[in-house]
Amino acid sequence: MILPENYLIFLGDVASPLDAKTAFGLRDWRPEVCVGQWRLPACRVDLGLPERTPAQAAAAGARTLVIGVAPVGGQIADAWVAALVEALDAGLDVASGMHTRLRSVPTIAAAADRTGRSLFDVRHSDERFPVATGRRRSGRRLLTVGTDCAAGKKYAALSITRAMKSHGIHATFRATGQTGILIAGSGVAIDAVVADFAAGAAECLSPDNEPDHWDVIEGQGSLFHPAYAGVTTALLHGSQPDALVVCHDPGRETMDAYPEYPVPDLRRCIDANLEAARLTNPGVLCAGLALNTSPMAAEERARFLEGLQERFGLPCFDPIATGADALVDHLLRVCPSVRASAPSAPETG
Amino acid sequence: MILPENYLIFLGDVASPLDAKTAFGLRDWRPEVCVGQWRLPACRVDLGLPERTPAQAAAAGARTLVIGVAPVGGQIADAWVAALVEALDAGLDVASGMHTRLRSVPTIAAAADRTGRSLFDVRHSDERFPVATGRRRSGRRLLTVGTDCAAGKKYAALSITRAMKSHGIHATFRATGQTGILIAGSGVAIDAVVADFAAGAAECLSPDNEPDHWDVIEGQGSLFHPAYAGVTTALLHGSQPDALVVCHDPGRETMDAYPEYPVPDLRRCIDANLEAARLTNPGVLCAGLALNTSPMAAEERARFLEGLQERFGLPCFDPIATGADALVDHLLRVCPSVRASAPSAPETG
Q1: How far apart are CA A87 and CA A97, in angstroms?
Q2: Of A72, A74, A194, which has the smallest distance from its Cβ to B192's Cβ?
Q3: I need a surface site. Which of A78, A192, A206, A309 has the fewest CB within 10 A?
């Protein structure tokens, strides 16, 4: 899958930033290719990008409209269809991370055929995955897990990959969701794989590698989520991580969109993930905690992270505000096989 | 899905009874519709049914050839194709529980079109499932879980349903795998659902019901299985069981086909399943243990079951050898809402 760059980010009628995580992910990790945002009148989320219609974006160099919304269930809303057709008519391709395939909506398929534009469904892979074998693979793996969905697992993995590379460690970000795939240009949307093969897909995503190479795998869902814990479990077992990083949004008391379900205690979340991960890698350890401290002022953030660091005896960082250097320094100390070599050229992700 | 009865059971070239669980399930729970078995020369499994070719079976009243093999990965073997075509030519429909759809094999599709016979893929549903809500539903639910795959979860659920009905309890067997679906005539193959919707499919399978009605849900996989624990987790959360029954094959020391993975200790398996199930039903309890004691003589079986019963303080039964009456008696004591009403007519399953 190679999407023509640059991108116009479509926000539709989204009301909550949590439902626009694809849009924020691209803005934060691929800013150089985002030439604008396009919003329907009901939209209440703002990326801070220039407002552009498809025609204006095309004139400014955009080649693909990317749906930046990631709603629960991953359906294409009826309210978006006319907008997507307008983008095709303006000469843009359209990329979607939904479960619904773009071509399955007749109006969109007809417009793509009429205009000769391409439709990209990044959540779907044509690859057939095997049943997981449980066989230990060479190379090292770090998986981000979390207390909830949308708790910073992708941002943590991207910032850890960046920090590893700046420390001279050979590292690859492995995307497991639609946004990560759009950022990295490849990956497997684990939640779109047939359940029997989900752990097998995770095994394929981080194959045998050099002993000192790290795959930094984007986590999905949460073991404490009533809808997605199965996806989380399959990814955890198939990834056979050497190290976990637990991601948490301290401002959240109940699971996003599941107000009956409390966010689990951090200690309990660490223990449950370690216990599950030991099945395929008995040597797994928790390497640190990633916190979303975006609403905090600098002093409050520093106090908060220090307090947690003291409580858990682990590096605690914010992927955006502090970066993951402290985590990587800690990994270099606790994992004998992590060794810094000559720094590689900086790359995105 | 309504398969024309009766059935000829196709065993292909299967070598292990564990890989022929569909065949054994039909023989044991729908014997009245199984008119024969058909085996390729390499086959080393025997159901004890009359040996019949498709033509002989058709003459004896068979209308459908059912693939009785359930290999890891669920693919249609090349070695079966000529046999399936012979069945179609003999006037039989063909039913399969594989992940591979029958129609995706060109030779089979052409033979079905030529003969006008039907192809049934019972593992696939055309239904679209929603993301799980985690909402508590009315009615009662029992789920069978296990230390491994093929450890007796389906047999336990079928025998519990039968015993509940004979106690006058309103109960429904809910099939979650291809064999269960062939036995019950309906159900959802959870492992064939896209991972994001697997817990949602489990919610749909046991909808709101009368307060004293029990859904007895066939479990899948094991929390300790490196390939299938994600499926197990999704089914556990979506089923929100009030009661678990843990199924175990005491003759097995390592997971079937995964010799690197030991079968978990029963106490650890009970605790892990209860801990995971509490997420969607904090009141869940373990109601008993189902053991496959088929290789044991009567006295050894009795001693073995009594020893376990003492160790765990729970009813321990063999779905085939002893039936589940002791378990249902126990449930009547420990679950206040389980009450016997007028006995319903006996039904299969």
Answers
A1: 17
A2: A194
A3: A78
Please name which of A336, A319, A22, A285 lies closest in space to residue A160, comparing C-alpha atoms: A319
pLDDT tens per residue across span A57-116: 999 999 999 999 988 778 899 999 999 999 999 999 999 999 899 999 999 999 999 999
- The rounded distance, in Å, linking the Cα atoms of B189 and B154 is 13
Contact B195 A200 (CB under 8 A): no
**Are B276 and A276 spatial neighbours (Cβ–Cβ below 8 Å)?**
no
Q: ∠ CA A69-A128-B66 to the nearest 5 degrees?
A: 115
Residue of A239, A128, A119, A120 whose CA lies nearest to A178 = A120
pLDDT in tens, B30-83: 999 999 999 999 999 999 999 999 999 999 999 999 999 988 778 899 999 999
3-class DSSP state of B4: coil
Collapsing DSSP states into helix, strand and coil, what is residue B66? strand
- pLDDT value at position A186? 87
Chain A with chain B: Cβ pairs closer than 8 A: 128
| Residue in the block written with tokens 């205009």 | A115
In degrees and rounded to multiples of 5, residue A228 shows phi and psi of -115, 0
Instruction: For an interface test with B, give the residue of A194, A203, A239 to mutate (most B CBs within 10 A).
Output: A194
For residue range A299-339, list pLDDT tens digits in order.
999 999 999 999 999 999 999 999 999 999 999 898 765 54
pLDDT at B336 over 70: no
Separation CA B321–CA B291 (nearest Å): 10
Chain B: residues touching A (Cβ < 8 Å): 72-74, 99, 130-135, 190-196, 198-200, 224, 226-235, 237, 258, 260-261, 272, 275-276, 279-280
Q: Are strands A243-248 and B285-291 parallel, antiparallel or unpaired?
A: unpaired
The rounded Cα A111 to chain-centroid distance in angstroms is 30
Closest CA to A345 of A81, A166, A129: A166
Name all contacts of B98-103 with Cβ < 8 Å and 24+ positions apart: B98/B67, B98/B74, B98/B123, B98/B178, B99/A194, B99/A196, B99/B73, B99/B74, B99/B75, B99/B123, B99/B192, B100/B74, B100/B75, B100/B76, B102/B76
pLDDT at A337: 56
Question: Over 70: is that where the pLDDT of A182 sits?
Answer: yes
Flag if A233 and B233 touch (Cβ within 8 Å): yes
Whether A344 has a pLDDT exceeding 60, the answer reads no
Using the beta-carbon criterion (under 8 Å), do A258 and B134 form an inter-chain contact? yes
* Model confidence band, residue A268 (pLDDT cutoffs 50, 70, 90): very high
Average confidence (pLDDT) over A181-203: 94
Q: What is the DSSP letter of B35?
A: E
Task: Give, to the nearest 10 degrees, the angle between helix A298-312 and helix A266-277.
Answer: 50
What is the least distance, in Å, from the CA of A19 to any CA of chain B? 15
pLDDT category at B1 given cuts 50, 70, 90 is low
pLDDT digits (tens, 9 = 90+) for A146-175: 999 989 999 999 999 999 999 999 999 999
- Among A161-175, A190-204, B116-130, B168-182, the minimum mean pLDDT is found in B116-130
Is B202 in contact with B190 (CB distance < 8 Å)?
yes
Enumerate the residues of chain A whose CB falls inside 8 A of the CB of residue B274. none
Could A134 and B261 be called an inter-chain contact, meaning their C-beta atoms sit closer than 8 Å? yes
Q: Do A227 and B72 touch (CB under 8 A)?
A: no
| Of A242, A264, A248, nearest in space to A305 by CA | A248
Best mutation site among A72, A99, A196 for testing chain B: the one with the most B CBs within 10 Å? A196
